[in-house]
Structures are given as C-alpha cells and as structure tokens.
Amino acid sequence: MAEEAKYDAIVVGAGPSGIAAALTMAQAGLTVAVLERGEEPGTKNVYGGILFANVLAELVPGFLEEAPLERHIVTRRFSLLSEEAEMAFEFRCERYNQAPFNYAFTVSRARFDRWFASKAEEAGAELFTGVVVDDFVWSDGKVVGIKARGERPGEYDELYADVVICAEGANSLLARKAGLWKNPQPEHRATAVKEVIALPREVLEDRFHLQGDEGVAIEYFGAATKGMVGSGFLYTNGQTLSIGVGVSIAELHRRRPIPNPNELLEGLKSHPAVRPLIRGGETVEYMSHMIPEAGFRHLPQLVTDGLILVGDAAGLVNTSLFHEGTNLAMASGRAAGEAVIEAKEKGDFSRQALSSYLGRLRSSFVFRDLRRYQNAVRYLMDHPQLLREYPGVFADLLARYFEVSGRPKEEVRSELMAEIRRRIGLLKLLRAAWGLQRHVI
Amino acid sequence: MIAESGLLSTIEDKLYRVQYRHANESHIRVDQEICRGCHIERICLSICPAKVYSLEEGSGKILVNFENCLECGTCWIACTEGAIDWRNPQGGFGVRFQHG
Ligand SMILES: Cc1cc2nc3c(=O)[nH]c(=O)nc-3n(C[C@H](O)[C@H](O)[C@H](O)COP(=O)(O)OP(=O)(O)OC[C@H]3O[C@@H](n4cnc5c(N)ncnc54)[C@H](O)[C@@H]3O)c2cc1C
Ligand code: SF4
Ligand code: SF4
Fold it and tell me: Given the CA of residue A16, which atom of ligand 1 is nearest to it?
C-alpha cells in the first residue's frame, strides 16, 4: 500500500455493506480502496444463513447466474417451543420457486463475500486484505484517512481519502473510537453461536421435503432460548444445515447462573422437535458473532465530517420477526456510495453534505422498517412472560385439548377456557397479541 | 457419542473444527486490578462461546486463552466493568471461517 496514495473513498470492511458502497462508487468512476482484516473477504464473517438479495439484484443484475447461491427459500416456518412441544406456523409458496425466488437464498458467507468483493474489484475498486484499520487520520476535526496497523507494534501506514466509509460490522471499534457509537451497552447487542452440520444431500432433501435447490428456513422461539429475548434458527444449505441461537447480551447478564451461548445451542439441538432434523449429521464448523439490536432510537450518529457508518456498524438490522440484515447492509452501502458520489460533484465532504445519506435511508425501506419495528426488542424484554411462560401454558392446554380421553369435547373446552382465564387472563392475552402484532410481526 | 453421529456438543470438541492462523501476540488484555473487584459475576468466564477466559487456581487471576477466540466481540460488551481491552488480531491472523 503506497503511503502517499489518496483515494476518493476508503471503505473499511469487505462485508455486504462495504462492498455495496465500494461497488456503487467504483461504477461511477471514483477511486476506491477497500481494506479488509481477514485473509480474504468472508473469512471473519458469520450470519444465520439467508441472504436477502433484493438490493443485490439491483447492484449485480446477473447475480442469479453468478453468485454462489446454495438454496432458495420456499418454506418459512415459525416455531414456538415449550420444553416438550412445538407449535408451528409453516408457509410454503410455489411462487417462491420461480425466479427471482423471492430474493431469499442460503449462502455461505465465506464464499459469497469473496464473490461479491470480486464484483467491486471488476468495477475498479482496489481490495487490500489482511489489513486491520485501527484508527482514523483527523485534520481540523475532519476524517481524512485511516491508520492501518503495521508489522511492528506502534507502527502505522496512513492512507488518505476525501471520505471514509466505516463498514466494520457489529463489533465496530472505529465507530466507537470516532465517538459516534457512544457507551456500548449489553442491551444493544445480541450474541449468537452457530454450527454448520453436514448431511448428505439426499438425506437433507428427504428430511425437509425439498426438491432440487429448494430450501427451508425455520425460526424458533420460546424454549429455544430458555425464554430469553432472542431466537433460534435452522436453515438448509446445499449439503449442510446451519443451526444457531442468538440472545440479547443483557438477558444473559440477568440470568443466574449466567448461561454460555453454546449451552443454549445444545439445548436447541437436543429439543425433541429439532433433534430428528439434525440426526446423523456431522459438525463441520462452530462460530459466533454479535447482532446489533439497539433499535431505531438508539442508532449511533451515522455521519460526521469525512465519515459515514453503514450496515451493522450503523446498527441497521431489522430485529423483528424478519431478521433482515444483509439487504439493509447493502442498501445502506449503496446509499452511502451515492452520497459520496454527490459530495464529490460538489467538492464538499462535510457532515452536512454527506447527510444526503440519511435522506436516502429515510426514504428507503431501511429507515421505514427500522422505525416500524423500533420497539420489538424492548417490547419482548418488557413482557418476559411471552417467551418464558406462555409457550409452556399453551403447549399444556393444546396437549389437553387434543387429548383422546372419552370426555365430551365441550366439557374439555370450557375447562380449558377457564384455565386460560386463570393462568393468563383473557385481557392480558389480548393485549399481548395486540402488542406482538404492533411491535414484532 | 462423537464417533456415532459426528454431532459435537462441547466447546472443546467444536473448537477443533475451527480453523485459525495463530498470532504470536494476544489481541485481548484484561485489567486484573478491575477483575479482582468484579461486580458482575465474572461474566466473561461464562459468556464467551469459546471459553477464552478462565480462572487461575490459587491466584484468582483471569487467564486469557486468546488463540481460541472466535472474534465475536461479546466479552467486551458484556464486561460492563471495562476490564477488557479488545483489539482486532493482526491483519490476516486469528479465526478463519470456512462457511460463516
Ligand atoms: C448469527 C447471525 C445471524 C444472522 N442472520 C441473518 C440472516 O439470516 N439474514 C440476514 O440478512 N442477516 C442476518 N444477520 C445479519 C447480517 O449478518 C448482517 O446484518 C450483515 O452481515 C452486515 O453486513 P456488514 O457489511 O455491515 O458487516 P459484516 O458482514 O460484519 O462485515 C464487516 C467486515 O469488516 C471487516 N472489518 C471489521 N473491522 C475491521 C477493521 N478495523 N479493519 C479492517 N476490516 C475490518 C470484517 O472482517 C468484515 O469482513 C445475522 C447476523 C448474525 C450474527
Ligand atoms: S473481565 Fe470483566 S467480567 Fe471478567 S472478571 Fe474482569 S471485570 Fe469481571
Ligand atoms: S470475542 Fe467472543 S470468542 Fe473472543 S474472547 Fe470475546 S467472547 Fe470469547
């Protein structure tokens, strides 16, 4: 890396948000350097498993043929677990079986991020891997470059640009260093662990009723996280499946004894509804990552002079039932790229000029969705009974409702209604349902 | 059980399936002074999904087995005492996910 070089823009991090930004700017002819700490893009990156590709389709129109996609999601399943039972809602749609496949695909991040980065390189962006950015270069209160860690302690290479786009992801040390992400709190991050389990393709397809490249996405709630705010997931890839659990760090803080995330994952794996789905598989990788879940009102400051935060570093994850992050990351990266292109035309890289980024986010699904679901996590935290007690109560009532007993159904039914009134309260139940639809689904 | 199904359950076994390029130097430092007066039940010991933190018998010092780190960043958010100084490992070193 030449020390004197100056780029139009430097992007820190080659995840979906950083690459979307780099690609957008490179396509417009700007000089762009992308710095990635991993040996290659993707080697540091973890997610649940579904790439939401609606923005990708606009950035790389040929992605369906080119991207390393594993399966497209035709079946979505939402499953509430009690200790012994599963109550699930499943949706399968033939429409999702036709191009563009509802823009939902399982992909491996190690493969996808490398491919996506190659698209930015083809457009002219320069990618430097194995480079850790430790700080910004400031001049007159403006960010004018970055400091990349050198070989020896205390040694830095400086690289300059009109704008730096920080796409560091959920564990953004730079956003904190710049004072934009103040006082990180356990409430504002979830932690997740995941395992990739190999299964022969035929077994996988038989077990999940899949044909060809069809895939299924299952989200687990309730006992999946021992009643803590968070969820479990199971997604099918080509010849593996991804299974994991994410919970709010604040929730782990409150539990005694404090659970280890792997214990939660093992709990999910051994649940009677899940165990048969992974049976006979082989663990091939284990991983962990944070998810930002601060919500719209606790986002960091996203722009300052010469600096823009995008993707997870900016806290842009939809933490409601939808669990979308990759598409918000790409949308924000593109919006930042467009803001920089516009700033360059004006020759003004001040906070004010770069704030057109915020305008773009505001008018897109990114801010609209974040605002719509801003209370999702808070609502669940304030109503711990929803994930902790109710699943057990419902499972118990349903078990008795369907019990073959020889008793008249009418008698059983009125007995159970009385019990709902006693154990939950009808008003409370209605209010919970109303709250869920208002904040979470 | 492992031989039978290939599904792993313990952190130790799972970490064997993770690829790393080990750095010489730790990217994590803890302030033992703060740890001695930890008010949050030494959450680092239980919350780390790679069991990077352990307690030294006798001295009660927090040991940091940084080589196992999965680089999730959870520990330094969870340690609200501010005892953990977490940096990215040297460029190109640390965990190297094959799937992600
Ligand atoms: C367990 C889990 C499940 C998820 N499931 C889904 C899902 O199914 N679907 C979905 O859409 N979203 C999901 N998400 C969210 C999604 O992963 C993120 O929203 C998305 O990856 C954010 O992209 P990003 O580019 O902002 O950050 P990242 O993908 O985290 O990329 C950041 C990049 O920056 C690099 N980097 C960081 N710091 C530095 C530095 N100082 N110097 C150089 N390089 C640096 C990193 O190595 C990395 O490559 C999930 C997240 C998790 C953790
Ligand atoms: S690192 Fe933090 S949580 Fe762990 S013992 Fe020290 S102060 Fe406590
Ligand atoms: S970053 Fe994650 S894996 Fe590494 S020590 Fe901290 S909690 Fe453990």
Answer: 25
